[in-house]
Amino acid sequence: TSDEKVDYTVTSHVEQGSYGKHKAGEWITLFNIQMEPPSKITPKPYALPSEPEPHGKSKKIPAIDGEFMVSTCIHMMDRSLEPYVILHWIDNDTMQVQQNFLLDAAPRVLKPNKNGYSLTASIRFPKDTGVGDWTIATLSNSPFASIQMSHMHEITSFSGKYTPNHTLTVLREVVSCKPVQPVTVKISFNDPTTAFHAKIYPVENVEITKGLPAESKHISSMSRIGECLFPSLILGSNEYLVECTLDPLNIPKVLQDGGDLEWKITISSDQSIVMRTDVTQQRYFEAVKNGWAQKSENRAEEAEKSRKRYIESKKNMNGLPRKIVLKEDETPKLIDEEERKKMREQIEKVRDIATNHHTATKLWRQLESKKQMDSCETKIKECKNWIDETREANIKGRSELQSLLQNLRPLMQHMKTLKKLMEDGDENTIWNSKLEMEKISVPEWQAEVPEWRYKVIKKCAEKRSSELTVDKFIDMLSLPAKMRDHEAIIEHMKSVAENKDSVNYLLQKWIDHSTSSTVKYLLETIDLAMSDEEADESSVDKEKIEEMLCIFAKLEEIKPREELKLSKDDIDLLEDAKDLIGR
């Protein structure tokens, strides 16, 4: 009914990954997610206020045909890289691509389709970058029908040189692989000014007419300069033909200078890719060339007829206009004087319309210019009045400020000390100084002294303390997991968590990230130290297990085991490790 309120349960799916060292200007694909939206949306159960059910039971709503909305949240260890991450949303049915920057990612509405959707993230590094981690969370108002992550760690490159030809075809390559997997395809040239057109065809849809590839229906096409990216193709079940041709109106500069135009195809995937050249066109041209050498019947007669037709078409030209020759079944169309008169009248009407349009446009421009000038004059008067009012207010405020500063001298002295600490002090000293500043009382505080200065310094001190804490987290977590000082990380988290007033949303995120990465490293190290079940006891590294369990115990002092969200396998692994070392 109209009184009922429909609500939805937010469903989240989180994945993590990493990237290696890269130089400035290098491009990689971070991940590819294949997702299938549900055909129906299931609202969250609710209870009607007018009809409360006994024992607190809620009323269930059947699945409805609603909008399936998806939002993404991506965290990069190096926050300076986030403005350079580009998200690509691909409809796998139509291959239409919508892209946006990570920092401008709005929620998407996904409608049910046959092959689902792809979400690809790519980045071109603006600077030399070390090893780092990334985390993506997808939030939706109903669970996915299916969702699968590909980390795209396998990068395969193919290259070649352009051979001049009358069709301006740079390459025709067939891409395939055995397992079904998503891939990204990037085409680039050594000359960044190269204008080209790239198309992708399913191999089974490529038509061959008289031995030559005919115009076939492509699934995706792009016209770019320098390079282009096809963010998602599903290989394995299909083979695709990648075709690239030069723009005939923009010949690359390297070819004009007599150099070689080199191309490169870079494919990101989870497993190896195979690429072969399509030689259909080449075989056809070779067959035609070989056929020229064969003697055919009536070849001389046909050549003589063609020569006579050409000579006949060139007769009596001598610089004069070429005669119009009609076909045998055509007759010339005569235009009488009445028809000519109608044509002249039509021309006059068109000329009058154009004149009236020109006059109306000129009048509109005059009126619009006058309107804009009046508006500018009004705004100038408003600005002058505002300047006068502001000057008077500044004079009055300056005199009031002088009197108020006399009442703020003790507080100002402490704030000055706090500012100096924010330049060269650590986070604990800054925080303790802020607490002491809060204890200072001013007699005229409530009546005369404004709070804004006090609040600004207080807020700056809290922000600076938080920045120093985050910088320390970044320095500790920037190293690979094996080289990190996990005990120091835990001590840092403990010192931050003890002062609950200083823990904001950003610090809590860093604490959670540090906790999850530390737990992951401890569990993986314990699992490796325990070796296989069939191995003897001598191969078990008990000292390493004892060390990891001690670090884990310190971590549990900050977060109880119930809040770490350990799986049953992780809990069993910890219990087995304790039993093994006799704890």
Description:
By secondary structure, the chain is an alpha+beta fold. Helices cover 39% and strands 23% of the residues. The strands form 5 sheets. Strands 5-4-7-2-9 form a 5-stranded antiparallel beta sheet, with no helix packed on it. Strands 16-13-18-11-20 form a 5-stranded antiparallel beta sheet, with no helix packed on it. A 4-stranded antiparallel beta sheet has the order 1-8-3-6, with no helix packed on it. A hairpin with a 5-residue loop joins strand 4 and strand 5. The N terminus is likely disordered.
Q: What's a concise summary of this model?
A:
By secondary structure, the chain is of the alpha+beta class.
Which residues sit in consecutive blocks of at least 5 with pLDDT less than 50? 1-6, 46-61, 443-449
- How many distinct beta strands? 20
Helical residue percent?
25-40%
Portion of residues in beta strands equals: 15-25%
Instruction: Tell the overall outline.
Output: flat
Give the CA-CA distance, first to last residue: 61 Å
Radius of gyration: 37 Å
Q: Which structural class is indicated by helix and strand composition? A: alpha+beta
Order of neighbouring strands in the sheet with most strands: 5-4-7-2-9
Main β-sheet: number of strands, strand sense, barrel status? Answer: 5 strands, antiparallel
Mean pLDDT: 78
Number of helices: 11
